[in-house]
Amino acid sequence: MLPKPGDFLDIPANSTKAFAWGGKLGYIFKRADNTVVALKGVCSHMECNIVYKPADRKFYCPCHKGWFDEYGKNIEGPPPKPLEFLEYRVEDNKLIVFKKGVKVELPKA
Amino acid sequence: MSCQKLRGWFLERYDFSELRAFAKKKFVPKHKHDVWYYTGGAALFLFIIQFVTGMVLAFYYVPYFEQAHKSIIEIVTKLNMGWFFRSLHHWGAQFAIGILFIHLFGTLLLKSYRKPREVLWFSGFILLGFSIFFGLSGYFLLWDERAFAAVRVATGGLSALPVLGETFKAFLRGGIDVTGETLVRFYAFHVCVLPMAFLGLLVLHLFLVQYHGMSLPLSQEGKKLKQVPFFPNVVYKDLMVWLVLFGIVVTLATLLPPQIGTKADPLAPPPENVKPEWYFLFLFQTLKFFPGDMFGLNGEVVAVLLVTLAILFFFLIPFFDRKSQHGQRSPVFTFIGIVYLLYFLIMTLVGYFS
């Protein structure tokens, strides 16, 4: 649950904004075509944190030189699987990020 | 009390004649490969340095994720001679592991693992494993970016192992991810669990060296070799090797103190071209070479399984090398040994320069 959804959803196209997904790295990612997605910023190979390279429009893992495209597909290097995407919705002016298929309800104040 | 009196006090109570007889009786054969005998002693000496400098550092290091990185910076900047002990601990570790690899490959190529010294080989091999874990847990204590990435990879790789992989991973990390919990755990491994286990196994290893005596290479068996007394000839030579090593390690520690990286941030990507310590480079490079998809199989799992099998074969080599068990030459295993050595050297170099 993140306050100020605007800080995350209104980022410029072709960029990312990091958030803490538990102890791991999460990204809100706005593709060049303005679609916004949430994903885990962790490489599917050896769990290093990945970084977005706007010039190449790809995610990159510096540990063993793995590459993923905008849709999280593992396209080069050792990663065996695509990136893990998360879901999000805005409620009560809060951005709620959750695992696919998990039902999340905000506690009633 | 004078020295004479003190001596008398002990002699009245203890019988040293057996020890003295043992010392007189112990001989070491002299031949063209006997330089390898000194590699074990050299490793022992470096571990003594590691224990002493490690104890000093443990007086000041704070094993908590918010303070760990800062406490090391304080050790090297504020404490009197703190930088020296830290630097010596670093260089001592590099040399200890380097010499253990030399000791290992020497033993392998001279086939000193053959009957009846299999247990010596196994205990030595496990001691090397402990040493590498000493290294990994030690540099994680820096809590810098590189160490953080290295421990994520090293523990994460375990999950590719079948059945127990996930359990091992969670046990080492103290949770599902690498966190401050992992730091406390690695500290406990580094200063308590590993030293205890290491010392126990080292005692066995050294006892077995005494029990079996020095191993003779197959090429020297049956020759009439000159026997050199262990006390004092070989001991003096051992001490000379130790002194030279000490000089080198202290010089390097003084002139090239190791860097401390940026403090680890679990949410930041690791620095570009991040690399582990040199003794992990051959594994690191292997992981890089395997593509994600290998004929429909998960490349990561294939890589980890192959590496595990290769290490297991290496460990059990005394059982596979039947010929040298019977005292015959076994060129096939010399070849296998050279392949292992070349793989280690080449992958380390490729990893270093890539």
**Count of DSSP strands of chain A:** 10
Tell me the quaternary state: heterodimer
Helix content of chain B: 55-70%
Question: What structural category do the secondary elements of chain A indicate?
Answer: mainly beta
Number of domains of chain A: 1
| Biggest sheet descriptor of chain B | 2 strands, antiparallel
Largest interface: A-B, 25 and 32 residues
- Major sheet attributes of chain A: 6 strands, antiparallel
Please give a handful of descriptors for the protein shown.
heterodimer, A: 109 residues, mainly beta, Rieske Iron-sulfur Protein, six-stranded antiparallel sheet, four-stranded antiparallel sheet, 10 strands, 5% helix, globular, B: 354 residues, mainly alpha, Cytochrome Bc1 Complex, Chain C, two-stranded antiparallel ribbon, 15 helices, 4 strands, 68% helix
Summed up, what is this model?
With 109 residues, chain A is mainly β.
Tell me about this structure.
The complex is a heterodimer of chains A (109) and B (354). Helix content of chain A is 5%, strand content 42%. In chain A, the strands form 2 sheets. Chain A has a 6-stranded antiparallel sheet. Chain A has a single domain, classed as Rieske Iron-sulfur Protein, CATH 2.102.10. In chain A, a hairpin with a 4-residue loop joins strand 6 and strand 7. Chain A is built from 1 helix and 10 strands, in the order E-H-E-E-E-E-E-E-E-E-E. With 109 residues, chain A is mainly β. By secondary structure, chain B is mainly alpha-helical. Chain B has a single domain, classed as Cytochrome Bc1 Complex, Chain C (Up-down Bundle), CATH 1.20.810. Chain B has helices at 3-13, 17-25, 37-58, 68-77, 82-109, 118-140, 145-158, 165-173, 180-212, 230-255, 281-289, 299-315, 317-320, 322-325, 331-353, and strands at 27-30, 226-229, 293-294, 297-298. In chain B, the strands form 2 sheets. In chain B, strands 1-2 form a two-stranded antiparallel ribbon. In chain B, strands 3-4 form a two-stranded antiparallel ribbon. In chain B, helix 6 (118-140) crosses helix 7 (145-158) and helix 6 (118-140) packs antiparallel against helix 9. The longest helix of chain B has 33 residues, at 180-212. The radius of gyration of chain B is 23 Å and the shape is globular. Classes of the chains: A mainly beta (109), B mainly alpha (354). Chain A binds chain B through residues 18, 20, 22-25, 41, 45-51, 62-66, 74, 77-81, and chain B through 149, 152-153, 156-157, 175-179, 266-274, 284, 287-293, 298-301, 303.
